[in-house]
Design a protein that fits this description.
Elements: E1 4-11, E2 21-22, E3 35-39, H1 40-44, E4 57-62, E5 82-85, E6 89-93, E7 105-111, E8 116-118, E9 131-135, H2 136-141, E10 154-159, E11 184-188, H3 189-192, E12 199-206, E13 217-219, E14 246-251
Antiparallel strand pairs: 1-13, 1-14, 2-7, 3-6, 4-7, 5-6, 8-12, 9-11, 10-12
Length: 265
């Protein structure tokens, strides 16, 4: 077995990218009922967050407080089911608290300013049959060279006929396919409870370059943290707080032959 090296295309560190911006504070729920659910999934049902782009950071606080916390710093006063994650949000369940009551939380997201290019609107399916399947993997399976193999940063979705935003049509979308920047959109009749609209989607693709101060994405050096001994070679990203937008790999033995077929999701 060959040892494998990876190189990632990453956003530059926050302190060297100009133009990132924070959203306003979101507080769409309160802790009545079973708890306080300030999730990105629920917020996206009301409109685009970060303009349809993947948030790169999040911070949370108890409503009315000036003390904030994140996934990696600070402390929440409650036991959280979802701990202020950029791509998931926050959730607090009343039954998991010692006093059976959560605080009322609010969350804001850090949005990327990284340069990129929007695709045209794409429409590969119609809602006949089981529904409308506008999946990233399906576009690539159809031979569409979406973002040159990199992971899209943003997504916009609308119905073909009226061009209403996906969140204004009244349809219910399959889990993880609610105009997702990573997965696209899927609306099935089984989940929606009826015929879906016909949708089209567009994606924003990252600009990969070698600049040191502009707001583009750059490649890391080759990383090799493990060897192929034991059960295999584990070159995992880990919980760094920022996600690569692209990845390529090569064997350590044959470094002149990069294996560029792998896309990480």
């Amino acid at each position: 077995m060959n040892s494998v090296l990876f190189v990632f295309s990453c956003l530059l560190t926050l302190n060297s990218i100009q133009g990132h911006y924070w959203t306003t504070w979101y507080d769409r729920d309160n802790p009545s009922g079973d708890g306080d659910h300030e999730t990105l999934y629920e917020q996206k049902r009301l409109g685009y967050v970060c303009g349809g782009c993947k948030p790169i950071g999040a911070q949370c606080r108890v409503r009315g407080s000036t003390s904030t916390f994140t996934r990696w710093s600070g402390t929440a006063p409650d036991i959280l089911a979802i701990h202020c994650l950029p791509t998931k949000g926050l959730a607090c369940v009343n039954s998991q608290q010692p006093d059976l009551s959560c605080n009322d939380y609010e969350i804001q997201y850090l949005c990327p300013s990284t340069s990129g290019t929007w695709t045209n609107y794409l429409d590969r399916d119609d809602p006949s049959g089981t529904g409308d399947w506008e999946k990233v993997s399906s576009f690539r399976g159809d031979g569409v060279n979406l973002c040159n193999g990199s992971r899209p940063m943003c997504a916009h979705c609308r119905d073909v006929v009226n061009q209403d935003h996906y969140y204004d049509t009244g349809d219910t979308y399959n889990t993880n396919y609610d105009c997702s920047w990573e997965n696209g959109l899927v609306c099935t009749t089984a989940v929606n409870g009826g015929t879906c609209q016909d949708y089209e989607v567009q994606f924003k693709c990252p600009t990969i370059c070698t600049c040191s101060s502009c707001s583009c994405a750059t490649w890391t050096s080759w990383l090799d943290r493990d060897s192929q001994g034991g059960s295999g070679d584990y070159e995992l990203v880990g919980p760094t707080g920022h996600n690569p937008v692209g990845i390529t790999q090569q064997t350590e033995r044959f470094k002149t032959l990069p294996l560029r077929s792998l896309v990480i999701y």
